[in-house]
Design brief:
The protein is α+β, with helices and mostly antiparallel strands and 95 residues long. It has helices at residues 4-9, 39-42, 61-71, 83-89, and strands at 20-21, 36-37, 49-53, 76-80.
């Protein structure tokens, strides 16, 4: 959910950059039809585990992406709410 420049600088080990183009409101009942997310183009296997993370707890894109993935039928969807800052702060693997 981080922008390409941020991803290129440093990212969670094994992560792929998959932008979520957000136009909907930042709320739980958001209208996903206003947003663009090319998850099904990037990940065909609906049994693959997916972990969505942003640049911290205030970002809505990773939440929205996880909701989107569930609605598309992906079975193993995880939302890492603390995002990249928490991952980095815990000295977890980065690339």
């Amino acid at each position: 959910m981080r922008i390409e420049r941020e991803y290129q600088e440093k990212h969670i080990k094994g992560a792929i950059s998959l932008p979520y183009a957000e136009k909907s409101k930042k709320e739980v009942g958001f209208d996903a039809s206003q947003d663009t997310f090319k998850l099904t183009d990037a990940v065909k296997d609906k049994d693959a585990p997916l972990i969505f993370a942003c640049n911290g707890e205030e970002c809505w894109k990773s939440y929205k992406a996880s909701v989107w993935a569930q609605k598309e039928g992906y079975k193993y969807v995880y939302w890492f709410r603390g995002g990249f800052p928490e991952w980095k702060g815990k000295n977890l693997p980065l690339e």
